[in-house]
Amino acid sequence: MKTLMLGNEAVARGLYEAGCSFVSSYPGTPSTEITEAAAKYPEIYAEWAPNEKVAMEAAFGASLAGRRSFCGMKHVGLNVAADPLFTLSYTGVNAGMVIAVADDAGMHSSQNEQDSRHYAKAAKLPMLEPADSAEALAFTKLAYELSERFDTPVLLKMCTRVSHSQSVVEPAARTEAPAHPYEKNGAKYIMMPGNAKRRHPVVEQRTRDLIAWAESAEINTWENGSSHELGILTSSTSYQYVKEACGDLFPVLKLGMVWPLPTDAILNFAAAVKQLVVVEELDGFLEEHCRSLGLSVAGKELFSCIDELSQNIVSEKLALPVPHGVKLDEAIPARPPVMCAGCPHRGLFYTLAKNKLTVLGDIGCYTLGAVAPLAAIDSTICMGASVSGLHGFIKAGDPEAAGRTVAVIGDSTFMHSGVTGLINVAYNESNATVIILDNSITGMTGHQQNPTTGYNLKGDPCTKIDLEALCHAVGIRRVRVVDPYDLAACDTAVKEELAADEPSVIISRRPCALLKYVKHHKPLTVDADKCRSCKQCMKIGCPAISMTAGKAAIDATLCTGCGVCEQLCKFDALHAPKED
Q1: How far is 69 from 31, CA to CA, in rounded Å?
Q2: Which of 163, 327, 344, 426 could be cross-linked to 475 through a Cys-Cys bond (beta carbons 3.0 to 4.6 Å apart)?
Q3: Which candidate, 103, 156, 160, 100, places its Cα nearest to that of 130?
Q4: Which residues pair with 410 in a beta bridge?
Q5: pLDDT digits (tens, 9 = 90+) for 27-43
Q6: First to last CA, the chain
Q7: Rounded-to-integer distance, Cα 64 and Cα 84, Å
Q8: DSSP 49
Q9: Cα separation of 541 and 343, whole Å?
Q10: Cα angle vertex 463, ends 457, 468, to 5°?
Q11: In Å, how far are 41, 488, 535, 567 from 571, measured between CA atoms?
Q12: Model-level pTM?
């Protein structure tokens, strides 16, 4: 029966129908829901790994054992997993292995725009790119067939618009994939130089074989148009924009496999039209390939390599006549992200800003501590970079910098790649103060469990990593826990640890205010007669607080009663009501 599914849900359905047995991923928008949806199928073992590199290596292990496997990540996560990725291209697989990578053109929830197609080319791995949910399901199943037929991991490239949009799919029954027996084969799987040299020619031949397959592959489709003045080469969500803007006006060659790319299919298409135009988001990847074939092509001189495309942009750049041009004129108001009311990170960031500290930040919802009015973060690079960067900042900079510089990192991010930076701090003895913002969950991507929460992906109790013990174990003697709702305690802890002449860790611990099990206090109230309109309470940037008619006002539908603002008011105008 046909049904609507998110693109990510459709990938998970494809995993189920293809007989996938093992899923290991690290959450990252826009890829997260693939693994969350896969975990709902009892036939699939699914887990959150500490990071993407571990997830990919675990998925390879499952493939080596003879079971179809999967790992998923966002585009920057593939950077973390690049080390095993390139070598897995040489080893190939035993049972099928699929790797989903979700790009985030427009940077809706990312620190850069990155085109993952370059990884497919560089690692010499096939990459499929669906344009809607139905293709997401079908291409996932096809990826396993290709993986086992060509002895290779297969990349499945998603993007924000395909991952997070719904379209019609037609689910089918699961087909149990037979287990592939494991056979010892050092020449194939032990990548020491002698073996790797013999595997490289295998990779090159595989690429030639995949190109031959791509020439007539059904997922690369040629759609005719009424005018051959130009032809459009495209893929993924760009195809949807082209069809909305152009209808059936121009011929379209839609590529479902974006690496390796066919030669004859593209040359034949180009010969059938007067002008070839490539419509693709981010880099001119398909355009570059066309030029390598000696074709004259229009691409990035029309469509920017920055931000997302849209049907509006396609219409404008192709100068489409009415009725083919589509124009959406509605102005959408800006909605900048903010830390939630009651966010446990707010009090800690207020303390850091008040003390005018240099703060090296990291990846998570706490990155919002960088925005006004807190403006408490000086840098954000990648997962774990705050701790490593702090070490370098202190070692290379002003000797007094250690007394006024800290790193902040979330509990999930610390387990992902912050702990190695802390080991470096201890081993190379920098006088660093690292603050772990422990909100008991992976907050930014939607409340996924992590190794510090005590629960696995399916919500079952599991081993809980003790952050204090871990910090001590890597060589940090000074480890203390503070409640970020207690501003005085935060201030004392930060000042004392910065003054200490050795590395230290402060764990700012309070669960995320949005967790269902967290019980909130009653909303605070404002005594307007006592309010002096000093706006001190506004300095924490809480969305529940505003100024109305010159006086502080609290939105009772948002306030969680955390009491942070109450501690800031010198005139006793903010009050917590008595609890029943």
Answers
A1: 16
A2: 426
A3: 156
A4: 437
A5: 999 999 999 999 999 99
A6: 51
A7: 14
A8: -
A9: 11
A10: 115
A11: 56, 17, 11, 10
A12: 0.94
